[in-house]
Amino acid sequence: MFDWLKKNKSGRPVEKSGADAGASVVVTIDGPSGSGKGTISRRVAEALGFNLLDSGALYRLVALAAEDACLSVRNTEALVELARHLDVRFDSDEGGEEKVWLGEQDVTKSLRSEETGASASIVAQLEPVREALIERQRAFRQPPGLVADGRDMGTRIFPDAALKIYMTASAEERAKRRHKQLKEKGLNVSLAALSRDIEKRDRRDSERTIAPLRPAMDAKLLDTTGQSIEAVTQQVLDWVAEL
Ligand code: C5P
């Protein structure tokens, strides 16, 4: 096992410093919507004391900022400017729940809506927008390590990641999970409509020419259908332990 995983007395991984920062280990978890990658990435990052990159949130934020500025999602030049200068802050409330700020605006709820997901997948088709977000994503690679969740983490953003995972689940289970998640966040949407939206978004993400959703050649495939969050988290941690 890598020696960065040796724990100190507090049980946290030992941090590397200074010159080693660029070499911080990366675990990438890519996959379609509802595959479980967001939940599992958070759990794995917590267990390892690693940083977490939710790259989908960045595309969602560009889409939200565009809507705020009444910009068309096809105005590439203006979108690139937005992506370059996103004033975003990730936070948590007293209960430990995620909070996201765009400038002074609390966008926690609108960020996770299906409409925002759909707009995000449209802006995500634009290569200049993707390019404008590359360095911002790579900057999350800080000691002692990073868990990066998205669509192209293993294929494009962190091609040298120590562990690459491609997570899937049956279409039916993914729709059900998203439905439950959205309901918990107080967002109302019918299961049938959600299934259609997810299918459309997956098709757009998989068929686009730039950084399409697909497993990296060296990714481990993980089908989470019918598996508990605990079991999937443990599987990922076991793979990390084998590094
Ligand atoms: O993961 P999430 O559902 O938040 O992502 C929203 C959209 O952002 C995806 O449907 C996809 O089009 C886009 N995305 C992407 N590349 C990533 C992460 C998300 O194109 N690395």
Question: What is the fold's blueprint, element by element?
Answer:
Blueprint: E1 25-30, H1 37-48, E2 51-54, H2 55-68, H3 76-84, E3 88-92, E4 98-102, E5 105-106, H4 108-111, H5 114-123, H6 127-138, E6 145-150, H7 153-157, E7 163-168, H8 171-184, H9 191-207, E8 220-223, H10 229-241
Parallel strand pairs: 1-6, 1-7, 2-6, 7-8
Antiparallel strand pairs: 3-4, 4-5
This protein binds cytidine-5'-monophosphate.
Cytidine-5'-monophosphate is lined by residues 33, 55-56, 59-60, 117, 120-121, 124, 150-152, 201, 205.
Give a description of the structure:
The protein has one domain: Rossmann fold (3-Layer(aba) Sandwich). The termini are close together. Strands 2-6-1-7-8 form a five-stranded parallel β-sheet. It has a three-stranded antiparallel β-sheet with strand order 3-4-5. Mean pLDDT is 88; it is low at 6-21. 40% of the residues are buried. It is globular, with a radius of gyration of 18 Å. Helix 1 packs across helix 10. Helices cover 45% and strands 16% of the residues. The protein is of the alpha/beta class. The chain binds cytidine-5'-monophosphate. Cytidine-5'-monophosphate binds at residues 33, 55-56, 59-60, 117, 120-121, 124, 150-152, 201, 205. The site of cytidine-5'-monophosphate (C5P) has 14 residues, from helix 2, helix 5 and helix 9.
